[in-house]
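User: Sequence recovery, please. Input:
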């Protein structure tokens, strides 16, 4: 949903500016006659989905270097899904830590977590929220290059609203 992405970026914009992180958003979807993006409604809890995106964006900013980049790309996929890709230019995540980052209380950067006050719950909560919305989340990271989180969520199809799924 266009509003969800817009509101989420507004929520974290000041944090990015303090660290001199450049935020960019790319929309890879069609525009309708009213110049609104078409076919991107996701059925779910707006505040929970916003929390999930903020958790990832906070990490992308906090673990990035000054003057780094955080790039958000929203794309409508053929399988009636919307994909939200969040890429950063941070230090990346060690391959040994990648299988564990969605576990509760797991912190890949233990020294930094102590100083920044991280609880190790953000990504576990994010995974749970995405799962509750019948979506998927995955991560790809390269040490020294950055990290990419990809969230796929089903698109709400109004034509099927109220139709029994039996």
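Assistant: Recovered sequence (166 residues):
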């Amino acid at each position: 949903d266009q509003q969800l992405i817009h509101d989420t970026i507004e929520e974290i914009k000041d944090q990015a500016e303090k660290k001199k992180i450049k935020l960019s958003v790319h929309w890879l979807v069609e525009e309708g006659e009213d110049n609104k993006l078409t076919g991107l409604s996701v059925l779910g809890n707006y505040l929970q989905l916003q929390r999930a995106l903020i958790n990832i964006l906070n990490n992308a900013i906090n673990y990035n270097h000054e003057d780094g980049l955080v790039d958000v790309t929203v794309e409508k996929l053929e399988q009636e899904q919307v994909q939200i890709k969040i890429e950063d230019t941070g230090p990346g995540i060690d391959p040994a830590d990648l299988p564990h980052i969605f576990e509760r209380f797991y912190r890949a950067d233990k020294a930094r977590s102590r100083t920044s006050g991280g609880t190790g719950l953000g990504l576990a909560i994010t995974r749970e929220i995405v799962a509750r919305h019948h979506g998927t989340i995955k991560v790809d990271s390269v040490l020294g290059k950055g990290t990419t989180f990809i969230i796929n969520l089903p698109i709400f199809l109004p034509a099927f609203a109220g139709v029994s799924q039996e």
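The chain is about 30% helix and 25% strand.
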